[in-house]
Specification:
This protein is of the alpha/beta class. It is globular, with a radius of gyration of 17 Å. The protein has six helices and six strands, in the order βαβαβαβββααα. It has a six-stranded mixed β-sheet. Strand 1, helix 1 and strand 2 form a beta-alpha-beta unit. The chain has a single domain, classed as Maf protein.
């Protein structure tokens, strides 16, 4: 089964490949770079699903006939901030903001907030766009809390300040294999993989999908 991932983020590609390979070695995931790169997409939708859908449809115009597209939108939702940064996670401190800038702004807005009120969850929504145009949506979450300061050098994004439930270290401090077992993306990908295990044969070819 051949899929193209709607991202130019190598960290994300590696994470997706690592997670899916543990479920099914037959799944082949390629980066958007393999088909000329990810087309520009204005991620201005109000939901994770709609943003993922925008990316999936944009890349679908470039992939070879018979290939499917996987796109995700994910973000950090902090309860004390009414779900912020949410869909704006990657641009919380402004368009083109660095991970460090986003983290600094979030910590500023949580300054003085006690640990018990710093609950949060990472959410990942995956849209699978089949060759015939049918769409499937898979949702995964990982609950935890926001630390007082960054720790660790692994991962990316908000990983240095997110401490998953039942852990006392951040995502950035966890071994990659462990993070890939408990992350929001892992939860969504497991649902995708389980679906593919049952229905995957119908995704592998346009002929199978016909004009449904």
């Amino acid at each position: 089964m051949r899929f193209f991932l709607a991202t130019g983020n190598r960290h994300k590609l590696e994470e997706v490949v690592a997670i899916l390979s543990t479920v099914s070695p037959e799944i082949r995931v390629e980066c958007a770079d393999a088909v000329g790169g990810m087309p520009p997409v204005e991620e201005g939708a109000a939901s994770f699903v709609d943003n993922a859908r925008l990316k999936a449809r944009a890349l679908a115009q470039r992939v070879p006939e018979g290939a499917a597209v996987i796109a995700d939108d994910s973000g950090l939702c902090v309860d004390f901030l009414d779900g912020e940064p949410g869909v704006c996670s990657s641009r919380y401190a402004g368009a083109g903001a660095s991970d460090e800038a986003n983290i600094c702004l979030l910590l500023e807005r949580l300054e003085g907030v006690p640990l018990e009120k710093r609950t949060a969850h990472f959410r990942c929504v995956i849209v699978l766009l089949e060759p015939g145009g049918r769409e499937r949506v898979f949702d995964g979450r990982c609950h935890g809390r926001i630390a007082a300061k960054p720790s660790g050098r692994g991962g990316f994004g908000y990983d240095p300040i997110f401490v998953p439930s039942d852990h006392d270290v951040s995502f950035a401090q966890l071994p990659a294999a462990r993070k890939n077992c408990i992350s929001h993306r892992a939860a969504a990908l497991r649902k995708l993989a389980e679906w593919l295990a049952i229905f995957g044969r119908s995704v592998s070819s346009d002929r199978d999908l016909g004009s449904h």
